Amino acid sequence: MKEELIVSGRMNHLIDPQLQIWHWHIPLYLFLGGLAAGILFFAALNTILGKEEKYPTAVKIAPFITPFLLIIGLIALFLDLNHKLFFWRLYTTIRIESPMSWGAWTLMVVTPLSLIWCAVNIKEIFPKMEWKYQFLKDLDAFFRRNLIFISWLLLIFSLILGVYTGILFSAFNARPLWNTSILGPLFLTSGLSTGAAAIVLLSKNHNERNHFARIDLMLIGIEIFLIIHMFMGFLASTQVHIEAAQLFLGGPYTTPFWLFVFTLGLVFPATLEILELRGFKLPYWIAPVLVLFGGLLFRFIIAYAGQVSRWLY
Known about the structure:
Order of helices and strands: HHHHHHHHHHH
Shape: globular
Number of strands: 0
CATH architecture: Up-down Bundle
Largest sheet: none
Radius of gyration: 22 Å
Structural class: mainly alpha
């Protein structure tokens, strides 16, 4: 009998395609990044429009949570890495075609800008605070003189950060559920919506809450339109895309998505915001909390369902 010895690396870890390689770290980061992008976008926009005093929570108060959101998100990304000591290699090159490269460099810009924004507005939180050293006073004066330029920079990069959270998924063509250009605008809209909801939740000014409730209502409408359009596109596409859509249309993700994300995270808070704007007395915090919950769950469901969808049979 002739024997042959076959040497293969087939059984090595991660050689074959794996389901759910991305665990809770990635959707958590995408939610926190989108939320931070939404808050910073509204802060920068209202500063450019000269509405700092009209909407103080959006411009001066809410941005104080963004450095913490970004840092927690970065920690989640770091925990997800297989080779943690080599994360710095993302910053040794710029690859225009790589979503990872875009995200790394965008975070490199947005994170220090969020800290600068907090430093400029820190007296809103601590009115008696004074900079101890002269160079800090000079730095503060420099940032204040160039606040409009910083606002434009923050506006642009917050939009890039919001879109990138969706493009990170859509760049993976091997997963049919993620293989759609709708995810970029959808994640951006969702991030802006959660940002508006966070401002409503933090604000003590009735007029400011109503203003951002209207904005959130508009964004929820856009989000619903994009979700419906995404599924229409899947159902009119190839068989694997139809099967990806069926995960949400009778499949295992039907109830979590349509009940908790679409109904409780979008339709119900939109209804509450409409009633409140029409003068009904309702606890103002319910709608924004539901929007934040829906935004978080949306990213978890898309992350996990996307890894289930596949081309292989």
